[in-house]
Amino acid sequence: xxxxxxxxxxxxxxxxxxxxxxxxxxxxxxxxxxxxxxxxxxxxxxxxxxxxxxxxxxxxxxxxxxxxxxxxxxxxxxxxxxxxxxxxxxxxxxxxxxxxxxxxxxxxxxxxxxxxxxxxxxxxxxxxxxxxxxxxxxxxxxxxxxxxxxxxxxxxxxxxxxxxxxxxxxxxxxxxxxxxxxxxxxxxxxxxxxxxxxxxxxxxxxxxxxxxxxxxxxxxxxxxxxxxxxxxxxxxxxxxxxxxxxxxxxxxxxxxxxxxxxxxxxxxxxxxxxxxxxxxxxxxxxxxxxxxxxxxxxxxxxxxxxxxxxxxxxxxxxxxxxxxxxxxxxxxxxxxxxxxxxxxxxxxxxxxxxxxxxxxxxxxxxxxxxxxxxxxxxxxxxxxxxxxxxxxxxxxxxxxxxxxxxxxxxxxxxxxxxxxxxxxxxxxxxxxxxxxxxxxxxxxxxxxxxxxxxxxxxxxxxxxxxxxxxxxxxxxxxxxxxxxxxxxxxxxxxxxxxxxxxxxxxxxxxxxxxxxxxxxxxxxxxxxxxxx
Length: 532
Ligand code: BG6
Prior knowledge:
By secondary structure, the chain is of the alpha/beta class. It is about 35% helix and about 20% strand. The model is unreliable at about 1-15 and about 530 (pLDDT under 50).
């Protein structure tokens, strides 16, 4: 059974991979990918390489109709050259197979036009009707909004006005829509966007992207927790003293200064990626892996998070921005010197929060979150810190015994470490923390698919498990709002940190009331250096 005719995922991944010179696998269902933002950066960096890799793996038909909509590129030939370059240099399946590429290129069409011009949608409609009439079965439409957020509204309005989103378009294939982040910039705008989408599409037809959910290591969180019996008995306030989640980036603004300066770290990373990690770590076991069963449990976690009052915001949040410094041996400028940043900017490039999950399992366990740009090294990790041994019999060794930790390395060096104490060999008694290690690369010896591959495939298959649902997005925004408002009003003044450090000293104070310390990413050790 093909992956595109409603088959189970296991059947989808067993599809024969493309081999050079082979005919393209045939698929019973025909779906056109209508790509708004086809001439943009995301398409080039992520979407085209991912689509090519999926075809090379035999998971998508090589002639998948891709209707590219954009403005920058003059003609289809030029667009194909760009896509070819993107697939050749960035896809997982290298070297590029020219025969497969030629088959893929045949399915790529181009409509050049403005996203707020109804003529663009008339041209899209004409092309889709033509493709539908030639297809062996009624053709489905997957609209993909790889566009900046100010275009969401014009695209949605025009999809509606042109009839493209209608259930009775053409020969009645299904419509679906994928929406890239950022999904709103506050609670009000997220609600409004949900409202607009839900006027045209049912919730099951809406796929809200958070690329973190497509990462293999993030999906493995569910497997680690719910396919192993040894962790669950310990996974609660009796045995866990705190949970630390770190998204540490070495990159700065990567040419996105104007966007980021209006967004900041809380909106850009915490509201979405970080809250997804928190929810997956703290959720109850779902009754099944059905999309809604999983998303119900994640949403319950977000509902259990205690909202911060204005006084809490002063005590339980830290915001900061980087000064000039050295990152990975390179001198880098201060945030205020970055292109696109307003001279009077108060935007944070680092945010840390101490949150509480008010439910039976997690009562009293602080969840410590920190995310920053231009930090010392790149690391996304979840550290589950266990309570200390109740009574230590090793006199004089108390300081070198750190409580156990389970470290889930989302990236890089993807894997899991269990940190425990061991006796250093020798006549004396010296105790050190050591890791018990699992590395994905060593265990499976394959290059994992990019997050976008999984998410594009799932949106075509109609599996919403790894996409954000309307209620959880609104819930996470409603938790952000008191923080954003209190920051705006001056609670928690903007601190600074040198680029290339682990963040501002104030973040240490945030964790101190828990009696713990931040764990140094990538190691079974408390952060050794001062945080400034
Ligand atoms: C994006 C943010 O959603 O995630 C970026 O907009 C951030 O600012 C990026 O750098 C991080 O993603 P990853 O996959 O590199 O960890």
